[in-house]
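Help needed: design a sequence for this.
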């Protein structure tokens, strides 16, 4: 091949390559600045192959807490009705000092002959436990709210946590107290009426 032909082909290849790269770049810049969510963007002109979305925008404004929960049913079962909103508003580290005696009084009003439960906790100890309303999670072993082998190592969505709470309040030391008509150690509902999703956020359909 003549030298002039080789030179021409080389220049042509470089021009082709350059044009191709410029086109890609132009497409990328346009999509990430067109004011609409398209391509692999997770927000308008951000996320995916564009710049990261600004997460601060998602949490802009002033938030006011209206509810909080560690162990399911705590506020409903152990607190006085007129103090439920108050429990939702206190900081977790304040709960024990402010609500332990309230919870203890409630336990004794629900079962006036309460002595201890299947966990071996008297009213003072049960109130102390639930007035620190955080959900313990074991870093090892099985996640269980209550079973024969595990006690409060977490909470799986399918577990009947309300029955466990009722058992601890009404079941007495052997778990059979108040197990007659009316049965107080169960709410009579064994499971959710719709299956939980297998992926995040794992909630069930409403119906
Ligand atoms: Ca866009
Ligand atoms: Ca139940």
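Sure. Designed sequence:
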């Amino acid at each position: 091949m003549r030298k002039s032909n080789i030179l021409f082909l080389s220049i042509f290849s470089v021009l082709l390559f350059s044009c191709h790269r410029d086109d890609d770049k132009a497409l990328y810049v346009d999509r990430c600045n067109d004011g609409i969510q398209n391509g692999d963007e997770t927000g308008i002109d951000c996320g995916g192959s564009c710049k990261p979305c600004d997460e601060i925008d998602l949490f802009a404004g002033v938030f006011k807490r209206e509810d909080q929960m560690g162990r399911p049913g705590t506020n409903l079962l152990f607190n006085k009705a007129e103090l439920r909103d108050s429990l939702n508003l206190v900081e977790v580290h304040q709960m024990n000092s402010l609500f332990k005696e309230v919870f203890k009084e409630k336990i004794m009003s629900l079962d006036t002959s309460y002595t201890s439960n299947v966990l071996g906790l008297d009213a003072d100890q049960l109130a102390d436990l639930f007035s620190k309303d955080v959900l313990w999670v074991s870093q090892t072993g099985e996640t269980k709210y209550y079973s024969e082998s595990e006690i409060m190592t977490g909470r799986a969505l399918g577990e009947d946590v309300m029955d466990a709470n009722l058992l601890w309040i009404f079941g007495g030391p052997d778990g059979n107290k108040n197990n007659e008509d009316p049965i107080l150690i169960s709410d009579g509902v064994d499971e959710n009426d719709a299956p939980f999703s297998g992926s995040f956020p794992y909630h069930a359909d409403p119906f």
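Residues 6-22 have pLDDT under 50 and may be disordered.
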